[in-house]
Amino acid sequence: MALVNRPGATRTGDWRAERPVALARVHLGGITRSSWTHPERCHVSSEQLLIQRIAELQVKLQYLDSMYRTRQEDLRRLTEHIDLLALPPNASALLAAPVPELRPEVKQLLKNMSGMAAAQGVHPPFSLRMPSSYHFLPHLLDDVSSLRLAYLLSKGRLGVSVVLGVPTVKREKQSYLMDTLNNLIEGMTVEEANDSLIVVFIAETDMEYVLQVAKEIEFRFAAYIESGLIEVLAPSAGYYPDFGKLRITLGDSPERVRWRSKQNLDFAYLMSYSQSKGTFYVQLEDDILAKPQYISEMKKFAIDKTSKKEAWFVLDFCQLGFIGKMFKSAELPWLITFFQMFYNDKPVDWLLDHLLYTKVCNYEKNNDICKREKARKWIHYKPSLFQHIGTHSSLKGKVQKLKDKQFGKVALFFPHANPEAEITSDIKHYKQYTLRRAYLGETFYWGLLPQPGDHLIFKFATPIPIRSYLFKSGNAEHPSDKFYNTTVEVLPVAAPRWLSPPSSNLTSDGFVIVEKERELLRLCLGPSMYGCLLWVHRTQGL
User: Fold this and answer.
1) Quick check: 533 and 482 in contact, CB under 8 A?
2) How far apart are CA 336 and CA 313, in angstroms?
3) Comparing C-alpha atoms, which of 463, 66, 119, 499 is closest to residue 279?
4) Contact 171, 392 (CB under 8 A)
5) Exposed, middle or buried by CB within 10 Å (0-12, 13-18, 19+), for 248?
6) Where is the MGAT4 A/B/C C-terminal domain (predicted)?
7) 175 in a structural domain
8) Cα 280 to chain center, whole Å?
9) pLDDT score at 389
């Protein structure tokens, strides 16, 4: 591993002694995720619990009803297809439509109208064809596989409470996806993970890139792929129009029009796939940070509003853009169709606002009334459960430092006491974030421009009894600023005892190479250890 070519935050911790009196902690810097416990809930009566349970079942029933309607639509299409196959070769396809039975009084009236042209107008061989996605996205007709998934990694999990939609695209500067997924998973309890689904939509048509991302996700989160918590999909190239032929709207540059138009289509695709997966759908981005147990908080808030008969359309768990917006899966078709209709016209967050305006606002009443009506449908949760951490936008050249002030502060380090040691480093520190101050527990360590062969060395004044050791790099505000292509080496007094077989061997000067290319390293050492060394093998930019 090697440090990225920019400031890198690092955290090392949990030096655990074999004897209870010898416990020490080492933090080289960086942060751990913030956590908190909720205050004790007030006593909830059995009647209130029953009301909440009924509300939960109502939302679930709405979701199941939407799935039933989808199956009805599939059955109707199949029936029409079978009827068409049964027609004589020269018969009109319109004759395949079933004809409803007439009431006796209508039959008598037609009998009395015998010979009149007006009588011939009953049940004409004509069926009305309603607009579909093909009317708004005609390019889909140019490719028979336009709506066929180009890639899918899935265990087929269905019927969960919450589906998290995470679209991701290739970024020029750096990717935050793996850090985002790691944070989302770490913020779940086991129960939440079993009742949730994370759908990663790789909104790219370059299959080589899609496979690279999917491979990395499986490498990092193999257990969660296997359990069905994470699914990965990508669209066919035919799903997207010729972005060079888009209308220029809102006075934006062609690049921005292309970017926001594609985002609208990406959201519509992801929502269409996710609609059948669970009761609630939450739109996220690939560069966010979530608070612990965010799943339970969102679900509880949604059920509470439903139990109070509040006819909400969107629950907002983040004040920025389209992050943390929850919808009932049964109502996603409203959004999907709206995004398809106006994908070339406005940004996706504007379209959501316009949809709400269309649903609840009266042109004949003043704007204050409109705001109140929208507030009843678009309900905000405070404090926010999600924070935007990305700096480099997926739009080329755009730098965004937007932060949700409702999210609160994230702890960047935790005060600690370390054993006496001599500390040396070849890596220049950034501003006041020195390795010495990090070791003293005053702040985190942030280094600049590492070079191959650079070292961070901790030489203890006396050998220290160690039971286990944890090394972790990264920072919640700068998640990709961490060690890459780096090894951790330790110098034991006696031969080490390993929790698992070592992946490498001893160095010529007696150091043990703990493990390569991992952020989280654990070993069980012998009675004492002289020192610890971090060795950068090569630099790696993002």
Assistant:
1) no
2) 14
3) 66
4) yes
5) exposed
6) 421-516
7) yes
8) 14
9) 85
Q: Looking at the structure, do residues 262 and 308 belong to the same domain, yes or no?
A: yes
Among 23, 19, 26, CA closest to 527: 19
What is the Cα Rg of the chain in Å? 30
Other CB atoms closer than 10 Å to residue 37's CB: what's the count? 7
Q: What is the pLDDT of residue 535?
A: 67
Cβ(137)–Cβ(340) below 8 Å: yes
CA angle 160, 163, 167 (to 5 degrees): 155
The predicted-structure confidence for 379-425, as pLDDT tens digits, reads as follows 999 889 999 886 655 666 555 566 656 566 565 666 667 778 888 88
CA 480 – CA 423 distance, rounded (Å): 25
Which segments of the chain have a pLDDT < 50?
1-43, 499, 516-525, 527, 540-542
Distance CA 458, CA 462 (A): 12
113: left (phi over 0), alpha (psi -120 to 50) or beta: alpha
Q: CB atoms < 10 A from the CB of 302, how many?
A: 25
Please give the residue range of the domain that contains residue 440: 8-32+415-536
Positive or negative, the CA dihedral 383, 384, 387, 388 is negative
ω into 492 cis (within 30 of 0): no
Overall pTM > 0.70: no
> For 107, phi and psi rounded to 5 degrees?
-60, -40
Domain tally for the chain? Answer: 2
Q: Which amino acid is at 80?
A: E
Query: For strand 325-328 and strand 455-464, is the pairing parallel, antiparallel, or unpaired?
Result: unpaired
Q: Measuring CA to CA, which residue among 13, 32, 34, 35 is closest to residue 24?
A: 13
Q: What are the percentages of helix, strand and coil residues in the chain, rounded to 5? A: 35, 20, 45
Rounded CA-CA distance 385/318 in Å is 6
Tokens 């971090």 — which residue? 534
DSSP SS3 for 455: strand
- Cα 505 from Cα 230, distance rounded (Å): 35
CATH at residue 427: 2.60.120
Rounded (5°) CA angle 258-199-53: 125
Assess whether 420 and 493 both reside in one domain: yes
Beta-bridged to residue 418, according to DSSP, are none
Does residue 60 fall inside a structural domain? no
**Residue 322, Cβ neighbours under 10 Å: how many?**
18
Scan for tokens 């018969």, then name that residue: 91
Do 431 and 495 sit in the same domain of this protein?
Answer: yes
Mark whether 371 and 448 lie in a shared domain. no
Cβ–Cβ contacts within 10 Å for residue 484, how many? Answer: 22
Whichever domain contains 244, its CATH number is 3.90.550.10
- Say if residue 444 is exposed, middle or buried (CB neighbours under 10 Å; 0-12, 13-18, 19+): buried
CA 78 to each of CA 75, 364, 412: distance values in angstroms, whole numbers, following the listed order: 5, 46, 58
Distance (Å, whole) CA 297 – CA 420: 43
The alpha carbon dihedral of 417, 423, 425, 431 has a sign of: positive
Same domain, 457 and 361: no
